[in-house]
Specification:
The chain is of the alpha/beta class. The chain folds into three domains: 256 residues, Aldolase class I (TIM Barrel); 87 residues, no CATH class; 57 residues, 2-Layer Sandwich (Double Stranded RNA Binding Domain). An eight-stranded parallel beta barrel has the order 1-2-3-4-5-6-7-8, surrounded by seven helices. A three-stranded antiparallel β-sheet has the order 11-12-13, covered by helices on one side. β7, α9 and β8 form a beta-alpha-beta unit. α5 packs parallel to α7. The chain is elongated, with a radius of gyration of 27 Å. The two termini are 40 Å apart.
Length: 523
């Protein structure tokens, strides 16, 4: 397959996802990582819409990118005005970007009902805007917004919009499934019909409202598209954009497309985690290619087969994309799962070794109490090393106290006081938090920060509590699962106790100790 041009819009379209807000520093950090990955076009934002995006372009003007060209975003001129007088177009030129993507209407519904103008004026808006930008020395991509809906509603006019952009000097025409509701078969058919009429690059931009964004993007490429737009981890408005992570994996591994350098493919998992970290979003465990569960095996039959030949239950070698195989520990895996984990941790165990039986019995006892190590692999690794005396704690607890106070103004405050012994020194600290667990977390970090500065690089990304015996009421045992992540990894830990604070503490300590152990191992 010919080379496919990757176009990332995480910093613009991705930032419109619910719960995501990037600072200028965040955007610069992500742009640098995308450049390292080898993405040729990075859409930095809309200079005419907010001061933050303009500041980003100004600061990036001092940053040299090795592989990528920074792209500005904007819209066609307003109706019945001159392109040279349009504030958005002037802001794009002022941004200093040499490449620009502008979107315009192609669906007659939007032209008449939203813009409140004529079909002819819309064509003039496309021509004037692109012509103006090209005359100012910019490379212009045209996003044909809502194109597939437009094509089905008024085929002739939608094509005229594309031809207007092409004739005005655009370098690429991008077909957008803006509402994300077009079926894959329709995407393929329409792209094939459009391809002969476009003499420049043809791109695809899909949203995921029907869960088809990645499939639709691949179908468009197989039908003749040269460029694919998307975001890292599929971030974006509503249900998100096409996820560039599996798109890159599919293009490189399944279709042999030269979209990025082969040596960079192994960075996919790291980049995916990095962007989720900066975005303050929980990393999806079931994300294709790069999720923690993408190559996880639980059932005994699966484990047995995959250890004999990984191809039996894995479509690729996890290492190709920087991921790894995981054998989940549960009652379904038995000794096999323990032995495989021991091997991965470089622990010397055999099936007949009494230590193996000891660990298995310990796991069975703990799972009977409510532990669920399948969902807490980090806690399991620590358990194994502690049981086999292959692990030395990074700190020891001497005691903690948590105070929750409701004041007269109905404000609830939480404070944790903690006593630790770290590297022979005694630490006695206190910290407040939004709740008792947050207060404990803050106090623990405060006590450890001078000894282990790397803890500032991690944070808790998810916290779950489950009552294990509802009939016991408030005396029931609870299970706490904590997911943590740093710039390169995500891990889960577990605690079980009748007291929710103690269960949380167990999971919290495991989370911190796993981070420290991980960093020490990789050092």
């Amino acid at each position: 397959m010919p080379k496919v041009i990757l176009y990332d819009t995480t910093l613009r379209d991705g930032s419109q996802g619910e719960g995501i807000s990037y600072s200028v520093t965040d955007k610069i950090g992500i742009a640098k990582e995308l450049d390292k990955l080898g993405i040729p076009y990075i859409e930095g934002g809309w200079p005419g819409s907010n001061p933050k995006d303009m500041e980003f372009f100004q600061k990036m003007a001092k940053t040299r990118l090795k592989n990528a060209r920074l792209t500005a975003f904007g819209s066609t001129r307003k109706a019945n005005t001159k392109a040279a007088n349009d504030s958005n177009l002037k802001a794009i030129i002022k941004s200093g970007a040499k490449v620009v993507t502008i979107f315009g209407k192609t669906w007659d519904l939007h032209i008449t009902d939203v813009l409140k103008t004529t079909l002819l004026e819309n064509l003039n808006m496309i021509k004037d805007s692109i012509g103006f930008l090209v005359s100012n020395g910019l490379l212009v991509f045209y996003d044909a917004e809502h194109f597939f809906d437009a094509y089905k509603a008024n085929k002739e006019y939608s094509i005229n919009c594309l031809l207007a952009a092409q004739g005005s000097g655009a370098k690429a025409i991008v077909l957008c499934d803006t509402n994300g509701g077009t079926l894959t078969s329709e995407i393929a058919k329409i792209t094939e019909e459009i391809r002969p009429q476009i003499k420049i690059w043809l791109g695809i931009h899909c949203h995921n409202d029907a869960g088809l964004a990645v499939a639709n993007s691949i179908a468009a490429i197989q039908s003749g598209a040269d460029m694919v737009q998307g975001t890292i981890n599929g971030y974006g408005e509503r249900c998100g954009n096409a996820d560039l992570i599996p798109i890159i994996g599919n293009l490189k591994i399944k279709l042999n497309s030269d979209c990025i350098d082969s040596s960079k493919l192994k960075d996919l998992t790291r980049v995916s985690h990095f962007v989720s970290e900066i975005s303050n979003m929980k990393q999806l465990t079931n994300q294709p290619y790069t999720g923690a569960s993408a190559f996880a095996h639980k059932g005994g039959v699966h484990i047995n087969a995959v250890m004999k030949n990984p191809k039996t239950y894995e479509h690729i070698d996890p290492g190709l994309v920087g991921n790894r195989r995981r054998i989940l520990v549960s009652e379904l895996a038995g000794k096999t799962g323990i032995l495989i984990h021991a091997r991965n941790l470089e622990l010397n165990l055999s099936k007949e070794d009494p230590k193996t039986k000891k660990v298995l019995k310990l796991i069975q006892t703990l799972e009977n109490q409510g532990y669920h190590f399948e969902a807490a692999e980090a806690s399991f690794e620590l358990l194994m090393k502690r049981a086999l005396k292959k692990y030395k704690r990074f700190f020891d607890l001497e005691g903690f106290r948590v105070v929750v106070e409701k004041q007269l103004d109905k404000k609830i405050t939480s404070e944790a006081i903690i006593k630790l012994r770290v590297k022979g020194a005694k630490e006695h600290t206190a910290a407040e938090g939004d709740g008792p667990v947050n207060a404990l977390d803050n106090a623990l970090r405060k006590a450890l920060k001078d000894f282990y500065p790397a803890l500032s690089k991690m944070h808790l990304s998810d916290f779950k509590v489950r009552v294990l015996d509802e009939k016991a009421g408030t005396a029931a045992r609870v299970r706490v699962l904590i997911q943590s992540q740093d710039e390169t990894d995500t891990w889960s830990t577990i605690g079980v106790h009748e007291n929710i604070i103690e269960a949380s503490w167990q999971a919290l300590v495991d989370s911190v100790e796993y981070k420290l152990l991980k960093d020490k191992t990789n050092a």
